[in-house]
Amino acid sequence: MTEESQANELSVKELRELVPQLQQLTDKYKRAELIQKALFDISELASSVNELSHLYPAVHKIVAGFMTARNFFVALHDSAAETVDFVYIVDEFDELTLPTIPAAEMKKSLTAHIFRTGTHLFLTKENVDEQLKGVDVDEIGADPVDWIGIPLKRDEQVIGALVVQSYDESERYTEQDLEVLLFVSQHIVNALDRVKSRELTEQTIIERTQQLQAINQDLEEEISERQKVEALQQALFEISELSASVDGEMTNFYVNLHDVLSRLISAPNCYIATLDKERNTLNFPYFSDEFTSTIEPRPVGRGLTEYVLRNGQAALIDKSKVKALADAGELDKRIPENMAQTSNSWLGSPLVVEGEIYGVIAVQTYDEDSPYSLRDLELLKFVSHHIAVAMERKRAADSIKKYNQQLAEKVQERTTELNLTNETLKKQIEERKKIELKLIHDAHHDALTGLPNRVMFTNRLELAVANKQRHKDQNFAVLFIDLDRFKQINDTIGHYAGDMFLIEVAKRISKCIRGHDLLARLGGDEFVILLDTFESVEDAEDVATRIINSLAKVFVLEDKEMYSGASIGIAMMESWYQTADEVIRDADAAMYQSKSMGRGRYALFNKSMRDKLLEELELESEFRRTLRESAFECFFQPALNLETKEFLYFEAYIRWEHPRLGKIQREQFCQVAEESGLTLELDNFLVEQACTLLRQWQYSDGPEKRYRIAINVSVNQLMQPKLVNSLLDKIRATGINPYHLVFEFDENALNRRSQHILPALTKLKKAGIQLVLDNFGSGLASLSYLYSFPLDYVKIDHRYVRSIPRSQKNLKMIQSVLNIGEHLDFKVIAEGIETAQQHRELVSIGCLYGQGAFVQKAQKLVVRSDKTSIE
User: Fold this and answer.
1) CA separation for the pair 644, 647 (Å, rounded)
2) Domain ends where: 605, 634, 653?
3) Shared domain check, 797 and 865
4) How far is CA 490 from CA 524, 547, 556, 733, in A?
5) What is the pLDDT of residue 188?
6) Is 46 exposed, middle or buried (0-12, 13-18, 19+ CB in 10 A)?
7) Which of 173, 645, 776, 869 can pair with 146 through a Cys bridge, CB separation 3.0 to 4.6 Å?
8) Sign of the C-alpha dihedral, residues 316, 318, 320, 325?
9) Could you tell me if residue 255 is inside a domain?
């Protein structure tokens, strides 16, 4: 085979190896394209859909475009009304329509759990029991294969939930589907708000338009009615035309009317009488008479006018009829006499408007030769009707004029209001656009420093990872920066100054990088930098050095000089990285390595750092499990009288053997407990073991009835009064005498918190518990501890004992402590006696008490079904 064919064969193999990667990239880009299209479609929906009922099916269709969503529903939670509205639901098995229901009726459902917690749920048939362990959920509906529920949030408030579920084994969901739904959910909420706002705006405009249309319709009906009346009046007699043309005062109208009547019938004398509102007084708006010039209003009586008013009919009354009416009691007795004297003939007709009589028009003549006839009566009846209408029209015209003026003012007012509303809506739309832009900005930037946040940094880093996979010759690096003493600055001068400190840090770091590099704040005092396209690793190290030097300079905060610094981890981008989180994780690991080497330096990531972190995480996890299951081995190391061998007390401690890492040093797992916040739980475990053994001993008849047990107690137990009280309550609850308990406190821990724990030590002492200062001389202990604290024993650190007899200086130091103990009434215990010579030297200087393997080895606590013992 030639060299050329071998080269070709090698290229084919390489191409075959690249096929899965290319397929994976293709699938990733297709998915990204689908997500991008979904976001674009949601944005288009927010601009084009006018009704919420049309929005939800469209959103369903969009979601179904990038994942299987045959079963889909949207539920909105009204926290004020405590109701849940299933605004949209499509499901193969559960009911398709649900009403608005009280939230209390579904409080144990998965949907209600999302409303309460504001967190998403991803349930599969494999993990549903584990996921719902400890969750108060009873109602799941038809059993799905997969179930994803996403909270819909406006700001930090949960307003609803979006759920997709699958009942088909062939249609399974992935973590990528969950991530996409989480990302798309906020855009769906924005679209929902925009459509709802538009729907409310359009509804308001429709209602306002309907109001104006109703007003205009009423006005048009009134105008139409007036036109009909005027058209009818044009066809009536001259009196109707006259009444329609009168624009002046009513007095002129009456005069002209009287002239018309005078041309129709003999009307030398005419008057119009009307009733007042109470209908008990007659007024005379018009009166013309040959003999009398004026007439005053008068009470309603038994006159000719009142007769017409009572009967509601027009009447012709002359001398021949008046007497009969008077005899019948219809008229006053004086009226026939008066009419006889004046040869009077009288016509009267009621003025009726809308079926109600409100007055009378009357004419009369004193000429005996010209009496009125029935024809005159009919004519007056006809005329009286139009007179009444004319009078009412005159009044109505004035009212209509006033009404039209009021209507015009009201229309103008409503038009002004509508214009203002339109302007307000325009402003709201502009504000909404500004808010949307701000939301987009806020979603990708840190609120305090204005730097990009984790989301934006991760997106950029994902692009860099993909770029590195395509172009292996391009260099990228992530710098993970952790600030030194940030908590101290916050606690010392306040959180406001702490914020100002972070802003200044961001400015200084920005000056140390190039324009195309990306600086982001992850949160707290953690910053990250993406270095883009540089030559070599030395360039990344130079940037780290500049940042460390810049942050080491003095900060002036609240007129105080403060110093900080930075520890930096550097992760160089390699082509085998698949996600941004992997790069950040490794940079973080390198940062922790730099902190462990000392502050104010940087470290480059290597694989051993990750292994160390994984080992620490495994150690912490196993420690938590062992403590939770009380699976530690408990041992007791006695402290005794070096001459009589009488036990002073038994010091309890635990040993831990990891299933993979083997025996763990005591200092190492104590550090794990300290860093994971489990020191109190570890103390409680030892207290329970000790109390269990003491409770058994107190009923014994042997020497163990007098034994005491010592426990190394964390200083954290003494920092809060309620913790001390809780510890004493637990001891009392066991029924043992606290006198049989001895608490040992490490000297180094007391150094850090000595000013806070004296009251707690005093309370323990009063309860009967004996106190030991452990590891005396291991740190910077002050002799004032020996004077201030109510100690029963002081235990010399084992390093002093081991130096005997080589170091006579240390032996004299122990002798000095013995002398102090005689004066201050505490006993001295030498810890770590391992040889006979150490034992002799200590006894020779008067040290009565000791502890160590030479004196007596530690014994294991054995728990049996019938008893617990030290063996």
Assistant:
1) 9
2) 605
3) yes
4) 11, 21, 14, 41
5) 80
6) buried
7) 173
8) positive
9) yes
Whether residues 723 and 836 fall in one domain: yes
The three-state secondary structure class of 161 is strand
To 10 degrees, the CA torsion angle through 741, 747, 748, 751?
110
Report the domain count for the chain: 4
Q: Are residues 179 and 263 in the same domain?
A: no
Query: Are residue 182 and residue 245 in the same domain, yes or no?
Result: no
Bridge partner list, 532: 476
Distance CA 519, CA 533 (A): 15
Whether omega before 805 lies within 30 degrees of 0, making that bond cis, reads: yes
CB 490, CB 442: distance < 8 Å: no
- The domain spanning residue 683 has which CATH number? 3.20.20.450
Cα 249 to Cα 456: distance, rounded to the nearest angstrom: 83
Q: What is the pLDDT of residues 427-478, one digit of tens each?
A: 888 888 888 877 777 777 888 888 998 899 999 999 999 998 888 888 899 9
Radius of gyration in angstroms for the set of CA atoms belonging to the chain, rounded to a whole number: 52
**For helices 52-66 and 3-48, what crossing angle results, to 10°?**
170
Alpha carbon distance 33, 21 (integer Å): 18
Q: Are residues 498 and 373 in the same domain?
A: no
pLDDT digits (tens, 9 = 90+) for 355-388: 788 899 899 888 877 788 888 888 888 777 777 7
The reply to whether 409 falls in a domain is no
| Spatial CA neighbour of 111 closest among 158, 145, 161 | 161
Residue 224, φ and ψ in degrees, nearest 5: -65, -40
Q: Which of 605, 634, 667 is the last residue of a domain?
A: 605
Spell out the residues 6+ positions from residue 738 whose beta carbon is closer than 8 angstroms to its own: 728, 731, 732, 767, 768, 769
Domain residues for the domain of 529 are 458-605
The whole-angstrom separation of Cα 81 and Cα 102 is: 8
Sequence-separated (6 or more) residues with CB below 8 Å from residue 184: 35, 38, 39, 42, 63
Name the residue type at position 669: F
Kind and range of the H or E element at 200? helix 175-235
Query: Do 662 and 589 have their domain in common?
Result: no
| Whole-number Cα distances in Å, 497 to 481, 484, 510 | 20, 15, 20
Whose CA is closest to 804, among 830, 778, 826? 830
d(CA 389, CA 56): 62
- At 268 the pLDDT is 86
pLDDT in tens, 232-283: 343 345 666 665 554 556 777 788 778 877 777 788 889 989 888 888 899 9
Pair 358, 387 in one domain: yes
Of 403, 549, 583, give the one whose Cα is nearest residue 480.
583
**Length of the chain as a residue count:** 871
Residues 288, 329, single domain; the answer is yes
Give the whole-angstrom CA distance, residue 595 versus residue 432: 46
Is 436 a member of any domain?
Answer: no
